[in-house]
Amino acid sequence: MVTDFPFVLQSIAWPLVLLLAWLLAERVHELWHLPRVATYVAVGLFAGLVQLPGWTANVVGLPFLANLALGLLLFELGHRIHLAWFKHNPWLLGLGLVESLITFVLVYKVALWWDVADGVAPILAALSISASPAGIVRVVNELRSAGQVTERVVHLCAINCLVSVLALKLVIAQWTFNTSGDVWLALVGSAHVVFTSVLAGGVLGVAVPWLLRLRRANERSVTLVFALSVLLLTTLSFGLQLSPLLAALTFGIVARERRILLTNAQRDFGAVGDLLTLFLFVYIASLMDWSQVWGGVGLAVVVIAARTLSKVGCNALAAHVSGITWHKGVLTGLALTPMSVFAIVLLEHSRTQGFGLANEVLAAMTAMMVLQELIGPVVTQRALMAAHETHVTQETRHGA
């Protein structure tokens, strides 16, 4: 029996690349203390560049796994949100909303100035509002970071993600109306996705804590049940064409309010969470088309500059009235630099729901995504370290 070598190579490509990404990330983290996710991205970019046989073609379920992995991270992000903090410090909520609006306007104006197509510019602006929960949560957990800047970054990241989803749905509704002329289809389609996704996450956020209290579950069971619930939400969202990202974030927020809390040991969802995160960053990076990178560097630089100016400027200007120093305000804005993973998964999900401009938007954003994926987690890490909120010592560094 003759072995089909290309088929064997195609079968083992993903496990080998993921193993390589893990080994390199551990080594790079040990030598230069860079975030592991940055190395995952670098390996994914290289895998996409060399186009390994069968890398993404004919591999069933990759988008689902990516949404599941990001869903776990969004649940954890939502689970860290304390809604009462917004009541005690309404400046923070106002800051998140105003900064999101300013980011949208700045990026939109810059995109039009760069002669980006009218239909693509608002999508680019809507996605630029978001900060990457995947990059931020993993860096925060890796550093064991805690403090004023860390909590603000987490809460502002959640606000940015929510506003980004809503802005994207509004822009898609406008596109649907322009292409179909059906106002009802445009409005109801987007409103249905947002409302039903939030409802699904909210229902589980109430039901799961009730179930855990009823069964008096231990720490391991709590983690397992939450992970299975995110899996359920992701599957349900794919079946009903909802937003698994919005549902998972809502689930985490509501579960936190029901007083079922994850301990430090439960964060990241253990080895399975680590594996899914590794896959997520490698997979998203591998989607980048290198033929579109070089021509988009100029646009990437100006958009990143506009986005950074908005986030750093707004946080710095609102620092004193919201209860922190100007220096910490600047660091908060810098820590919100990552955005690519959330934006790409959100865009891919919109494409599967029939949004015709998704491929054109991704082409315009490719260079920006590459830069943000590689540099963003490092900027977040350095900002949190500069804020002196990290708790990684020489004894704990290798296990971080």
Describe the protein's architecture and organization.
The chain has 400 residues and is mainly alpha-helical. The protein has one domain: Na+/H+ antiporter like fold. Helices cover 76% and strands 0% of the residues. α1 packs antiparallel against α2 (36-50), α6 (120-129) packs antiparallel against α8 (148-180) and α15 packs antiparallel against α16 (358-386). Residues 393-400 have low confidence and may be disordered.
Give a topology summary.
Layout: H1 5-32, H2 36-50, H3 62-79, H4 83-88, H5 90-113, H6 120-129, H7 133-143, H8 148-180, H9 183-215, H10 219-240, H11 244-257, H12 270-286, H13 297-317, H14 326-335, H15 340-352, H16 358-386
